[in-house]
Amino acid sequence: MTPTHRALGAFYGLALGDALGMPTQSLSRAEIQSRFGSITTLVDAGPDQPIAPNMPAGSITDDTEQAILVAQLLIDGNGRIEPALLAERLIAWEAVMQAKGSQDLLGPSTKRAIEMILAGRSPEEAGRYGTTNGAAMRITPVGIAADIAQPRRFLEAVIQACQVTHNTSLGISSAAAVAAVISCGINRQSLAQALEIGTEMAFTAEQHGHWVAGGRLGPRIRWARELSRDCPDGELADLLYDVIGTSVASQESVVVAFALAQRVALGKLGAFDALCLAASIGGDTDTIAGILGAMLGACDGLDCWPAELIAQVIEVNALELVPLVQGLIALRNA
After folding, report:
1. CA–CA distance, 234 with 157 (Å, rounded to integer)
2. Does the annotation list 63 as a binding residue?
3. Interatomic CA distance for residues 268 and 107, integer angstroms
4. Tens digit of pLDDT for each residue in 299-333?
5. Domain count, the chain
6. How far apart are alpha carbons 302 and 295 in whole angstroms?
7. What is the pTM of this model?
8. Which residue among 130, 203, 207, 284 is least packed, with the fewest CB closer than 10 Å?
């Protein structure tokens, strides 16, 4: 399996998880059970979906769209992201979404950072309050383009992608952990190995950015992986939803994605079944499933996803990720 095949598994895994979670995002677990039962395939969003009303089955959200934006910036910048340009592109992206009537707009951390940029604050300062999962949800292209085998350069690339909106210990460590798993997968490491390295990267990366109060990512990921290892099948969803949490806070949603990935690494859950569980669990379902899909796809390759569902996501969104992935792999090999 080539690095490109694994990178496609990651990027299309992000898109597939995102689309599976699209109709359930921001709904409680009880609401999801009432409306859908559980998610087992791509489904339409209903008219009362609070963020994506009436979106057709297979539609991606801001998670994948912003990852594509970051990927293009990386390629255009030959591996570097100009902070001011990232801010400009995010502003332009939100304007397009608003013109479409979409409610899928910038998240709270990114919105606050962009407002500070527009008010003349520096990019380094603008991201000092970003603790939510926005950086982690769009970090997939950095994990593809930056090789974890060169840890200093890898971490620099992650910090650069986070700085404008999530320049905090929580924002950077969550994004670095996810990107590390993806980068390990592209290097042909097993999911179990990748999760261990991703956990350790969370500890390393939290030394960067502005310190903010909140549960530390490294200890929470390690704790959640241990809980997931021993939890009976019938209790897993309750554990994730009730105890860890599924909000936009990085120390909840990113940690849940790691807990589900641990279950897959143990052979207790299939890759696609894990995405469906993430999409059914409640809260920030599209982001949890998207991050999970990127990590699993990098380690297991494109073939771990149902081909007919990938084809549906491609068709519904007119999505063409092959040139982007090829450009990112070229940066990795440069």
Report:
1. 40
2. yes
3. 33
4. 999 999 999 999 999 999 999 999 999 999 999 99
5. 1
6. 12
7. 0.96
8. 207
Please indicate, yes or no, if residue 208 is contained in any of the structural domains. Answer: yes
**Residue tagged 């390990």 (tokens):** 184
Q: Residue 227's domain spans which residues?
A: 3-40+60-333
Segment 156-211, tens digit of pLDDT? 999 999 988 899 999 999 999 999 999 999 999 999 999 999 999 999 999 999 99
Are 262 and 297 contacting, i.e. CB atoms less than 8 angstroms apart?
no
Q: Is 44 annotated to bind ligand?
A: no
Q: Give the closest residue to 96 by CA, choosing from 133, 69, 75, 57.
A: 69
61 carries a ligand binding annotation: yes
Cα–Cα nearest to 264, from 298, 241, 223: 298
Confirm or deny that 284 is annotated as ligand binding: yes
DSSP 52: S
Q: pLDDT tens-digit profile of 148-171? A: 999 999 999 999 999 888 999 999
In a domain, 207, yes or no: yes
**Torsion, Cα of 102, 108, 112, 114 (10° steps):** -40
Among the listed residues 24, 290, 320, the one whose alpha carbon sits nearest the alpha carbon of residue 136: 290
How many residues make up the chain in this entry?
334
Quick check: is 52 in a domain?
A: no
Residue 55 resides in a domain: no
Whether residue 62 is annotated as binding a ligand: the answer is yes
Cβ-proximal residues to 46 (8 Å cutoff; 6+ apart), any chain: 23, 35, 53, 54
CATH number at residue 289: 1.10.4080.10
What span, in angstroms and rounded, lies between the C-alpha atoms of 6 and 4?
A: 5
